[in-house]
Amino acid sequence: MQIVFGRRVRTPPPDGYRTRVKSYLTCGRAFRIETVVDDTADLGVARRIAHLPEILSKASISLFGAYEHIDPDHPAPRFGHPKDWRPDSGARAHAAAIARTKKLDRARDELDRLGRGLGGRHYPDQAAVTARIAAITRDRRLGPYLRTTVDTDPATGRPTLAWSFDQTTVLADEAATDGWYALLTTLPTDITAAEVLRRYKGQEAVERRYGTFKGPLAVAPMFLHDNRRITALITVICLALLVFCLVERHVRRAIAPATALDGLGPGHRPATPTGRLIFGALARLRLIPATNGRPAIIPRPGPLQARLLDLLDVDPTRPP
Hints:
The chain is built from eleven helices and five strands, in the order H-E-E-E-H-H-H-H-E-E-H-H-H-H-H-H.
């Protein structure tokens, strides 16, 4: 990235932290940002899989401070109103609700055990109870929810505890945001929220082309001596990828409004045309070069091959 595009974006983690943010350019058209969480303790979250929604949420929030090293000539990342910039995900909402319920259930069990042990060997006084409540609050991340009152019974001298979860405000407000996730962007301010979401959903196409680069194009490792040759090699690879993508798009447009082509998939089943499938079907074609004034021809293409050539506007008797 540094050689081809002349820039590299690094965001080192704070001292003592193992969570970091990686930023890089994708296919020369998309600025991609990834949060790498090597230790969930950096986010104040436990490691169990039940806490995955909270890890995802806090990892997204950790991106907020990740842009101090970015070129100041580029616009800073921004957020709009949550309703405009935070798409809703039913799967995320369900996962967040389950994780919160499990977290509160575990906290209730621990607080009930604490209540049964008041005045005993482990919790003989108010200070010990307060310390245990602080530990439960920290481990179960109950800071916004838990309301406690610790006192001492004047008759017995034993500590007392009353606790509850704030169901009406804090928990209700958190539940109302389940499934929402923020989209961070450096696009100009005149870009609408709908356009930001459309481009975000289009990242999958860019990622799929990376799979093409590593798969069907089968780019072999090559040792090059200078930057000009590296740039030239990448240019040739990008041109090959462009042809690969244009062939796929041309076939898909040619069969529209249908989305699948008969016989293209494994076992001659219908399949959505992809560059890999199209070139795989055409790989067995032969080309007889032009000789003695006779034009080049493609002899006897099979039914699927003939169909693909027709969709690509290629005449087997006069190939380009």
